[in-house]
Amino acid sequence: MPLSEEELRLLEQMERALVEEDPKFASTLRGTAFRRSARRRAVIAGVGFAIGVAVLMTGAVARITVLGIAGFVVMLGSATVALAAMRGQHGPAAADPRASHPSRGGFTVIDGGRRTKRSGAGSGSHGSFMDRMNERWNRRRETGGF
Length: 146
Hints:
Residues 91-146 are annotated as: Disordered. 63% of the residues lie in helices and 5% in strands. It has 5 helices and 2 strands, in the order ααααββα.
C-alpha cells in the first residue's frame, strides 16, 4: 500500500531532522560513497603494507639497514591509514563545517556524531530525536490536523 502525501511529508521531515541531528549516522544508513572510499583506502593500505613487508624483508636479507627502515615506515604508514579507514575517521577537512560555525549559536562539541552546546544553558534540544517527534505528533493530533 503506497504512502499518502501526508505520510511522505512527515517521513521527509523526520529524515531531515535525523540528518541535522546526527549526520554521521544518517550517512551510514544511506550507504553513501563514504563506505566505498573507506574500503578503497583500506585495500590500498593493505597493498602498501604488503609492499612494506617485502621492502623490510629485502633490507634484512641484503643487510641494508636504510632499506629495512624504509620498509618499516611504509608498513607503519599503511597500517595507520588502514585503521583510520576502518574506524571511519577522516582528516580535519572532512569535519562538518557547520558544527563550529559562529552563526550556529556558539561553539559546539561533536561527541559521537551528536552536536552539543558547550554552555549547556539555553539549549534548544529537549530530549532525543524520537521524543521530539512524538511531541510533534501529539501536538498535531491535539490541534486537529496537520
